[in-house]
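Forum: Protein Structure Q&A
Topic: Joint prediction for protein chains with partners

I've read a bunch of threads here and the consensus seems to be that you should model interacting components together rather than docking separate models afterwards. I'd like to see that in practice. Below is the full input, 238 residues plus whatever partners are listed. Could one of the regulars post the assembled result?
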Amino acid sequence: MRVKVLFFGRLKDIVGRAEDSVELADGALIEQLFAHYGARHPELARFRASLVASRNQEFAAWSTALHPGDEIAFLPPVSGG
Amino acid sequence: MTFLSDDLFRLVSEPIDAAALIRHVRASEDGAVVTFDGCVRNQSHGRPTLYLDYEAYEPMALAKIREIAAEMHAKFPIHRVAIVHRLGRLQIGETSIFIAVSAPHRPAAFDACRFAIDTLKRTVPIWKKEYFEDGAVWADGELPPAPAEASRAKPAS
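Posted by a regular:
Agreed with the consensus. Here's the joint model:
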């Protein structure tokens, strides 16, 4: 299945892109999607404890299962206002 | 009866027109309008700031701002809410966020406005990068609360 992936703030700088599309095994979890990028970007993996994920624009647990066409984003600590 | 459609939420790239937002929330049944004007400070931890860049996960940020307004209406007897956040490059002294809340009586307007900015700073996916003479950093922020993880225990089979 294919999902869309978005990176924001410093995560975008680390990965070098704001948006990606990736093919994953059916039933993959957000955790596994993050591991996919963490393996390619060790600095990203180090931020694991200080970021949250969202699925289709709602905050989501790492254990959330992905579905085809999902929009997943990895969000560093927010600093708006 | 207050309808959320009277409220106004925007992410904008141009300067925020604060007076227009105050006019938007203010009606004849209101006895108070409380506003919050968040502006770009000239230093961060004693280091002189040149300017800021704000970015957002725009559709999610707007959805989260709408959720904050819904919570404001549920918690406080207020009338209307306007919340506008600016994105892109902002210079020292410019307004990055403006919140206006109207209510028949001032306590609710004060409380709701405070609730709005405090919640926004914790839950809305917006980020700022601070530029200094000798470099730039993403500002330290707050990690939004994520849903609890599902149990990893597997059922016995």
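Strands of chain A lie at 2-7, 19-23, 52-55, 58-60, 71-75.
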